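WARN  no MSA supplied for this record, continuing single-sequence
INFO  ligand: S-adenosyl-L-homocysteine
INFO  echoing inputs
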Amino acid sequence: MKIRPKKSLGQNFLKDNNILDLIIKLGDIKSKNTVIEIGPGTGNLTNEIIKKNPLKLIVIEKDNELAKNLKIKFKENIKLINQDILKIKDEDLVNENMIIFGNLPYNISTQILINWIRISNLKNYCKRFILLFQKEVADRIIAEENSNKYGRLSILSSWKFNIKKIIDINPNSFYPIPKVKSSLLVFEPKQKHHNLINPKNLEHVTNIFFNQRRKMIKKPLKILFENFEQVATSLSLDLKLRPQNIKNSTYYKICSIYEKSLK
Ligand code: SAH
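INFO  complex generated
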């Protein structure tokens, strides 16, 4: 069957068997795991997942043509959802002992990540995510403070996840060959994380800070708090620092103070 890859759906199929093997190894699939594969495409990885005999394999593919082919190829071995992942309520996908794989357009991977971060008790369900990102995005996710790449994405992700970068992947590993490098990341939910009332508050707080990442933090603090000087003192924050100089644990504390101020 001839597949014409669609650029609009970010279709770059992984064809490098070494990388496919590595992804499967990282997944560490056991017979009790429910596996979710987002954007299976032509099913290269799907094929390998099935060999590991998970309890259940749910695949979510937006492209109608690819979805039809997947159904023919894998029949009863998969539960196919022919839909846009962003239109599915993530809570509906939640299963026990879940492992999630995805090689998607990078903007969708980022959105998926943020959606899953919003789910409370994620650690009770989800074992790990194995996701491919455009290298620049992966670098932003794993960045630490005092780096230009550090920002919202790093702070939000490390609130809920321990994240490990495994490897950069050469464009030649895909067909068609993309213009950018990719990186493979593994996310495991933290057993303990800073308690917040609503993750959207952390999204808001980090938005206010990093909207103007070159400005001193006095400005965003002033936007968020009437008593901004008191807040700064309580956290021993120098108002002349820039957003990128603040540790993520401090952002979680700022968010807690913000949540209290909303009451
Ligand atoms: N995982 C496969 C395919 C990667 S290409 C592989 O590694 O070979 C990206 C895949 O994501 C394509 O199959 C594309 O159709 C699918 N996709 C793109 N946007 C999507 C969305 N919003 N929801 C579900 N699938 C999507």
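The radius of gyration is 20 Å.
INFO  checksum written, moving to next record
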